[in-house]
Specification:
Low-confidence stretches: 1-46
Structural class: mainly alpha
Number of helices: 15
Order of helices and strands: HHHHHEEEHHHHHHHHHH
Radius of gyration: 20 Å
Strand order of the largest sheet: 1-2-3
Helix content: 40-55%
Number of domains: 1
Length: about 300
């Protein structure tokens, strides 16, 4: 898979902004953050919106390819998928879930929103445009598998394959929206700490992808349905766990490695606290391989 390079200006934006204001007097907010952590030595980081707004079409192609590799092993067969034991199928590079009629599991249905977003740029198959109401038209995994080679799912896979960049845009938009919404519910001091850590992470191409992909992989956090014994494993919990450098001159690779280390700790704790019958430790090897890919230039990652 060709590794489409990010423009250096995109991912250097946050770092440049931090350096550019370093000579000014610290704000009262920054002084509060410094006194709380004893580690944050740079001014208040800029919102992630600045970095996201600078992403180019080339960037989104690269993000889409990487997520496609992580979620689908770069195999178009997995663009339409119904997992064993699941009550619904998932679609696209982000495995966006779509519920059949009468199904109401404790998860966020994402396929209809992705469809609406991408359809504004690339028209979906006609049968999908005409589907009313917009429920997955297969009531069971066996019914889905019988239809897998048919016209409708074949057309859908083709559309999903050629719209990877647009799906990546949808994932990034969802990431920004949910991050900001979740952050706004936290105390001001923690908002500053977490924003600082995220800005350091997103100052590089690899770190930006790590944040976006981990969100798509394990969510932001704050969902009572996605925790064991009050312990979470979403992006917020990983940033809380992540070591904060004493200097902003820390290399971008080391920052990503600190993020990966923290993510492994949270996911390991998840498997330890999970009900034994779920045997979640069987997933750790694959999860860790995905995480290690965040600081490799062109990793071969399986879902």
């Amino acid at each position: 898979m060709q590794d489409l390079k990010f423009r250096s200006s995109c991912f250097g934006l946050v770092a440049v902004l931090v350096v550019s204001v370093a000579v000014t007097s610290p704000s009262p907010v920054q002084a509060t953050a410094d006194s709380l952590t004893g580690l944050i030595t740079s001014p208040t980081p800029q919102p992630i919106s600045d970095a996201i707004a600078s992403l180019t079409p080339e960037d989104y192609r690269w993000i889409g390819q990487r997520i496609y590799a992580n979620e689908c092993a770069s195999d178009p067969r997995y663009l339409t998928y119904w997992g064993k034991g699941e009550a619904f199928p998932s679609f696209g590079i982000g495995h966006f879930i779509w519920f059949p009629a009468g199904i109401d599991p404790p998860f966020i249905e994402s396929f209809p929103d992705m469809l609406a977003f991408v359809s504004r740029q690339v028209a979906p198959p006609l049968w999908l445009q005409q589907l009313q109401p917009l429920h997955a038209p297969w009531q069971s995994k066996s019914q889905f598998e019988q239809a897998w080679s048919g016209r409708e799912l074949t057309e859908l896979r083709d559309w999903l394959f050629k719209t990877q960049s647009q799906q990546a845009q949808f994932i990034v938009q969802a990431f920004e929206t949910r991050w900001l919404n979740r952050l706004s519910a936290l105390a001001r001091e923690e908002q500053i700490r977490l924003s600082h850590k995220l800005s350091l992470l997103m100052a590089s191409k690899e770190g930006t992808f790590a944040a976006i992909d981990y969100f798509n992989f394990k969510g932001i956090g704050g969902n009572a349905e996605e925790q064991y014994q009050n312990e979470e494993w979403g992006l917020i919990s990983v940033l809380r766990q992540m070591s904060t450098p004493q200097k902003t001159t820390l290399s971008s690779k080391h920052t990503v490695q600190e993020f990966v280390k923290a993510a492994k700790q949270r996911l390991t704790l998840r498997t330890q606290l999970a009900p034994k019958e779920r045997n979640e430790q069987r997933w750790l090897k694959g999860w860790f391989k995905r995480l290690d890919g965040y600081w490799l230039e062109d990793p071969a990652v399986n879902p």
